[in-house]
Amino acid sequence: MGHPSHYPDPDPRSQGSGVLLSAMAGAVLGAAGLAWWLLSEAERRRLQGRQQRMLRISRLQDGSELSETQRPAGNGQQRDLHDKVHELNQAIDDVRRQLEAMATAR
User: Fold this and answer.
1) What is the per-residue pLDDT for 77?
2) What is the CA radius of gyration of the chain?
3) Which of 19, 59, 72, 95 could join 77 in a cystine, given CB atoms 3.0 to 4.6 angstroms apart?
4) In sequence order, which residues have a C-beta less than 8 Å from that of residue 81 and are 6 or more positions away?
5) 57 CB-side CA count, 13 A
């Protein structure tokens, strides 16, 4: 005659479901971590591109991007450059206002 054990035999089905639950939780956490990393990399690249564009615009505005041979010699050429920079600034302001309007519309 066998004596009853103090500890019941573990049900193999409950062990399997625990392993499955752990694997699913690990997969969800891994996917969330990967998604967070991908989003942070995309944001970093977006900000880096924005900084580079702003630097180029700044250089265009002060004329430092032009080489010495490309610098306008006469007053008329200087005025043309000034007009183009002014148009560029207006276009940037228009886009900024449109983006702000889109952001407030949400």
Assistant:
1) 75
2) 32
3) 72
4) 63, 72
5) 15
User: What pLDDT was estimated at residue 68?
Assistant: 45
Higher-confidence residue of 16 and 82: namely 82
Per-residue pLDDT at 29: 92
Greatest alpha-carbon pair distance for the chain in Å reads 113
Taking 3-state DSSP, the helix, strand and coil percentages for the chain, each rounded to the nearest 5, stand at: 75, 0, 25
Q: For tokens 């991908």, what's the residue?
A: 38
Which phi and psi angles does 72 have, rounded to 5°?
-65, 135
Secondary structure letter of residue 73 according to DSSP: -
pLDDT of 83 > 60? The answer is yes
For 62, phi then psi, to 5°, come to -90, 0
